[in-house]
Write a structure and sequence with these properties.
Layout lengths: L8 H31 L5 H25 L7 H26 L2
């Protein structure tokens, strides 16, 4: 007989937050990758701040839509926190690559 694997709420919680984190880091990195890899140009701080604020508003908007427009979904502040950490990590990677290439 096959044993049914049960997933605890802790595992589900961690996977969900990891998904939020990785998806937002990926959005930032894939948006700026063509300029960095092909054109060898790096976004300035104002551009990175604009991208961060746009993704922050996007994440909040999605959570509000879940709360008010989708049945059986709810607003989760921890989703927004995971999104924000992903955004900041992506920006951190871009800044690191930028600093490394300017010193070479």
């Amino acid at each position: 007989m096959l044993e049914q694997q049960s997933t605890s709420w802790v595992q589900t919680f961690q996977i969900d937050k990891l998904f939020h984190y990785l998806s937002h880091a990926t959005i930032i990195l894939s948006y700026f990758s063509p300029k960095i890899l092909v054109e060898k140009t790096f976004p300035n701080n104002k551009t990175l701040l604009t991208a961060f604020l746009a993704l922050l508003m996007y994440g909040v908007a999605i959570e509000l839509i879940q709360k008010y427009a989708i049945i059986n979904r709810h607003f989760d502040l921890l989703d927004i926190a995971a999104n924000t950490l992903g955004d900041l990590s992506g920006i951190g990677i871009i800044k690191y690559i930028s600093s490394r290439s300017s010193t070479s």
